[in-house]
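Worked problem 6 (solution included).
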Amino acid sequence: MPNARLTMDVKNKLDCLINSLYKQYDTKNHEKIESALANVLKACSNTCLENGVPIKGKSNKLTMSSLWEIKHACEYVEKNLPEANTCEMYGFNSKIKSELNFLLKGVENRIKIEWEILNEGTRNNPTLRDGLMERLRDPIDGHVLGLTKNGALESNI
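Solution. The predicted structure is:
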């Protein structure tokens, strides 16, 4: 399993997104809740890899450097949701966890596909190979990691 840690900057920005979501949840303003939820989910998707996600109160966006970082972010957000103290909040947390699980499966599938392409089809295209290696690089230890079709972890080192 790759190193599941995130940089402190990424953790702080994810915490800001989670806090913002639950502040909006307390207001019961449906539009603001949906907007805050969308930002949390964008932070755990390819959107963050490609465009970044703005963080209220921060001067720079949250951006991810690889698919592994997105995978770690999904896991971090899921583990750091506030405890539900009402049935309504329990349902809200369940909805978020369901969405995060969906995103996590998508990222894992993307890792498997890109790993397969990297290992089979990039020998004659160094530009494609370099791009895939960056998308599959673990942000903490720098290793290029992939998942095989059966879910086993592989490294190119």
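Discussion: The CA atoms of residues 147 and 153 lie 5 Å apart.
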